[in-house]
Amino acid sequence: MPDDSKGPIEVEHNVALGPLTQAATVKLRHHKRLPDEHPFYMAIGRVASEWAHLEHTLDLIIWDLAGWKLNMHQSVLACITAQIMGVGPRCKVIQALGELRELDDSVLKPARTLMSDAYPVADWRARWVHDPWYIDANSDAVGQFRAMPNADRRYGIKDIDLDDVTKTIKEIGALQERASALRNSVLAALGAYT
Fold first, then answer.
1. Sign of the CA dihedral running 94, 74, 52, 178
2. pTM (2 decimals)?
């Protein structure tokens, strides 16, 4: 069976509805998948990789807290953290383990604020990684299909600028710095108990 998924598609764009008795105005654009070597793919890969580094730093904190003085090998602890999906649940585990270890709230509060601040960035990460990418067959404008996600309640293929994706990469970097600072604080607090 031939693969026609790389061919042009027609989508509704900029739908403007008048009173219910009037017909909708529809502007059709022809889109196709991004070419294999398109620069957006590198940016999307960066988003995915940087987010994975953020989650790994949080896993390290969990390992530090859970394996503290137990001499548990990280591979054993990784069996647990591999089942935790996302930044929010990881921060909740850090909070719970930190309380169990009787760490001061001043050490644990950054985990709560990191969790809260990561939600909007996580929404954009999901959009960049999970939504399909297209290019306008006539103008070469890059667009992405949206189906009313939390981060952007629009429907259809929406034009995207590479700067939008780069902004998310920078925001993930800022979260990574905060996660590293949290790990340093946790390690220092655990060291105080040795």
1. positive
2. 0.81
